[in-house]
């Protein structure tokens, strides 16, 4: 079974973040790109990942942080760029799909494979930035510490 088949067959509602991280860790960039080329599957994966951000947010760590984080996951082939925004304010985290008119404190731009590796705890944001796998516009210090505000599983 290919990685794309394994992801396509997932009932995301019943998969723990740890299981998802383990699955992503086992995928090659080629397999993730195969998933990304399937517009419906890519959409399901992105919605699930961003949907979990609110549940995995650690308000006790964020404290009084006020930040709008814009995520741009670059598409491939016929798939357009996906844009989501994470708004952290007064100990809460809300995620919306699409670009608002608000000015983000930081924007992170990366491909599908790098995005999945990052959010599943299988890659370091600092390493990804140094290797130019993620582009950051705005508050680089906030971007480098973003992972501490979320309970990111380790595979």
UniProtKB/TrEMBL annotation:
<dbReference type="InterPro" id="IPR003033">
    <property type="entry name" value="SCP2_sterol-bd_dom"/>
</dbReference>
<feature type="domain" description="SCP2">
    <location>
        <begin position="59"/>
        <end position="150"/>
    </location>
</feature>
<dbReference type="GO" id="GO:0005829">
    <property type="term" value="C:cytosol"/>
</dbReference>
<protein>
    <submittedName>
        <fullName>SCP2 sterol-binding domain-containing protein</fullName>
    </submittedName>
</protein>
<dbReference type="Pfam" id="PF02036">
    <property type="entry name" value="SCP2"/>
</dbReference>
<dbReference type="InterPro" id="IPR036527">
    <property type="entry name" value="SCP2_sterol-bd_dom_sf"/>
</dbReference>
């Amino acid at each position: 079974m290919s990685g794309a088949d394994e992801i396509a067959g997932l009932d995301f509602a019943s998969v723990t973040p740890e299981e998802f991280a383990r699955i992503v860790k086992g995928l090659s960039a080629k397999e993730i790109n195969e998933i990304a080329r399937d517009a419906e599957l890519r959409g399901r994966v992105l919605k699930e990942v961003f949907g979990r951000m609110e549940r995995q947010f650690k308000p006790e760590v964020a404290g009084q942080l006020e930040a709008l984080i814009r995520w741009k996951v670059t598409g491939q082939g016929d798939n357009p760029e996906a844009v989501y925004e994470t708004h952290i304010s007064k100990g809460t985290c809300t995620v919306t799909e699409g670009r608002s008119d608000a000015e983000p404190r930081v924007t992170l731009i990366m491909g599908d494979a790098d995005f999945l590796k990052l959010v599943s705890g299988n890659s370091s944001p600092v390493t990804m930035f140094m290797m130019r796998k993620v582009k950051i516009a705005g508050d680089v210090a906030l971007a480098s510490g973003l992972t501490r505000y979320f309970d990111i599983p380790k595979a």
